[in-house]
Amino acid sequence: MSEFTTLEVVRAGALTTVQDLGRAGHAHLGVPRSGALDEPAHRLANRLVGNPEQAATLETTLTGCAVRVDRPVTVAVTGAPCPVRVGGRPAPWGAPIRLPAGARVDVGAAAHGVRSYLAFAGGVDAAPVLGSRATDVLSGLGPDPLADGAVLRLGPPTGAVPHLDAAPAPGPARELVLPLLLGPRDAWFTARALRTLGRAAYAVSPASNRIGLRTEGPALERAREGELPSEGMALGALQVPPDGRPVLFLHDHPTTGGYPVIGVVPERWLAAAAQAVPGTPVRFVPRRARSVAHV
After folding, report:
1. Mean confidence (pLDDT) of the chain
2. What's this model's pTM, rounded to 2 decimal places?
3. Integer Cα distance of 176 and 78 in angstroms
């Protein structure tokens, strides 16, 4: 018998990946940060099972996942609200759950939102790459997305499990209202485009993914033609491709790009963007730098 607790993937779901807080500090090498898209939910799941916040969890997408553990372990599910079942019986969401050896835990389809987080006491012990266990779907760094039948190892538990019935957590937003710090390329757009950006009704596109939240809505009119030489892209950058519809860069975004960035959404609002289902209304609130010191 292995000295480590392992989990077997029974149902991988639409997209389930291993995520932690990412591999910051490598953008100059062309490596994005990656990591959990809904960081508050990831951190909460870890706290519920006694882990440090950087421990690796499983991030599910829309349809959840199911795994079976070979030894007793404490787990917790946070993020997008969803049904949770252990051995076929209902179990709590947002609270520690003690699994017996051989138990199957099912994280169901998201009732609201997009991404749920399944944490295990000890964390998922995948091999780190550049100091992180996060799966980066753009570069391919980190563990592969989960597949049915895959087996993952867990680390040893490191902390006490809190005694509570349920942890309060905000639900996914029914409308995204995103502050936007204009620049560095807002001068590439007409005054009418800037008015449109602040007044128009956009919606989350079904083409959104871990790389970026794509929008549907009016195109932004350019004041300058052509494209830029490739330049650095920041997390939260709002890039405008040739079709004129903004794309909000999330954690697996490219580190460089040649389409103009009209503004940047502060990081604290990106978790809400990560949980926005297709069709969610999106409203941008553009501000100049001196007006967003409080965000």
Report:
1. 94
2. 0.95
3. 20
